[in-house]
Amino acid sequence: MSAQKVLTLSELTQDQAVRVEVNGVPMAVVLDAQGEVHAIGDTCTHGDISLADGFVEGESLECWAHGSAFSLRTGRPLNLPAYEPVPVYEVTIEGDDVLIDPAVTKAVN
């Protein structure tokens, strides 16, 4: 599988998540305050809730339902009630295009 265009940079608003689906894999895509684009699994590991409906704060995305925040860089939960990480996907920017390969996840350290 290879990276696919999921949206354009102009479709992203700083510090707001956008839900996309690539080959059936739901992701939350975020343009952070530093201008970096992140893609993490869109489903909260605590409550099966879309993270794209949550709140971006710094380098985290908080689930609106129960308040678990996940690192945009590692996918690790930063607080309870979630304790399992979400996947983090490699993002490639080509011009204005945001490309993601759902088969390529970043290693969680």
Short overview:
InterPro entries: Rieske_2Fe-2S (IPR017941), Rieske_2Fe-2S_sf (IPR036922). Helix content is 0%, strand content 44%.
Overview of the molecule:
The strands form two sheets. The protein has a six-stranded antiparallel β-sheet with strand order 1-9-8-4-3-2, with no helix packed on it. The chain has strands spanning 4-8, 17-22, 25-31, 37-41, 55-57, 60-62, 69-71, 88-94, 97-105. It starts with a strand and ends with a strand. It is 0% helix and 44% strand. With 109 residues, it is an all-beta fold. It has a single domain, classed as Rieske [2Fe-2S] iron-sulphur domain (Rieske Iron-sulfur Protein). The chain contains no helices and nine strands. The mean pLDDT is 95. Keywords: 2Fe-2S, Dioxygenase, Iron, Iron-sulfur, Metal-binding, Oxidoreductase. One of its GO terms (molecular function) is monooxygenase activity. Residues 4-100 form the Rieske domain.
Give the CATH class.
Answer: Mainly Beta
Low-confidence stretches: none
What is the count of DSSP helices, taking H or I runs of 4+ residues?
Answer: 0
Measured as a percent range, the helix fraction is under 10%
Question: Topology, pairings included?
Answer:
Layout: E1 4-8, E2 17-22, E3 25-31, E4 37-41, E5 55-57, E6 60-62, E7 69-71, E8 88-94, E9 97-105
Antiparallel strand pairs: 1-9, 2-3, 3-4, 4-8, 5-6, 6-7, 8-9
For this entry, give a set of tags.
109 residues, mainly beta, Rieske Iron-sulfur Protein, 6-stranded antiparallel beta sheet, 3-stranded antiparallel beta sheet
